[in-house]
Amino acid sequence: DGVVKFEDVRFAYDPSRPILKGLSFEVPAGKTVAIVGPSGAGKSTISRLLFRLYDVSGGHIRIDGQDIRDVTQTSLRAAIGMVPQDTVLFNDTIRYNIRYGRWNASDAEVEEAAQTAQIDAFIKASPKGYETEVGERGLKLSGGEKQRVAIARTVLKSPPILVLDEATSALDSHTEHEIQGALERVSQNRTSLVIAHRLSTIVGADEIIVLDQGRISERGTHAQLLEHG
Ligand code: ADP
Ligand code: ADP
């Protein structure tokens, strides 16, 4: 059912410079936890560790109680849907890019995923719709549109755990609003870890963890954190 648990996780890219200094938190099944904090705090590192792009140097990361070091890469990749902050799309159609999440999906399912990720308005507005090519040969999508295509791909894959690393690039407020809506719809009832670079996205999270220099400096709901100032 996808419970994610970090137990006293320590990590350093370079042994002389620790990045995470004993981090413990849990994402209960079906809940959304947002990680916030200044640039360089170690937020994206958390998602890289969960996906095992790197291994922890101390502590444990568990999914449903099992240390991820004891899980095969294949089942880890199947359990976690990751939307990275810099989405790279294939130089092919939008439909192809969304369908990459699950090749045997029907057209209706592809369209439903696009709708959930709120990319469908864009698709309908463009002359060739889903057959619009992304990348150099065709129409260039903005960073926000690309991220929504990646979100649609992940929705179609429908993994038990969702990791969303929000784009850091400057987005206009309309795009930001659309992405926020997409994230909210996608994370509903799904175990979700949101690496938040914008305050607007964390309002709906069940718990917000404030990371500062590799440690948790504050945690709580949006309302609780506002109370504490
Ligand atoms: P955030 O997402 O909070 O901005 P990151 O997790 O990306 O922070 O990075 C945390 C720290 O780790 C930063 O000081 C960054 O410079 C460093 N860092 C990130 N990636 C690497 C890497 N591959 N090798 C060495 N240092 C890295
Ligand atoms: P972001 O700040 O958008 O999360 P990254 O996580 O990719 O971006 O990188 C965070 C910081 O880590 C940046 O300042 C980047 O220069 C630095 N960084 C990334 N990869 C490496 C690396 N291999 N070695 C050293 N520093 C790195």
UniProtKB/TrEMBL annotation:
Domain ABC transporter span(s) in chain numbering: 4-229
Compartment(s) of residence: Cell membrane
Superkingdom as given in the UniProt entry: Bacteria
Coiled-coil annotated residue ranges, if any: none
Function: Involved in beta-(1-->2)glucan export. Transmembrane domains (TMD) form a pore in the inner membrane and the ATP-binding domain (NBD) is responsible for energy generation.
Family designation: Belongs to the ABC transporter superfamily.
The name this protein goes by in its record: ATP-binding cassette, subfamily B
Organism annotation: Rhodopseudomonas pseudopalustris
Shown residues within the full chain: 377 to 605 of 651
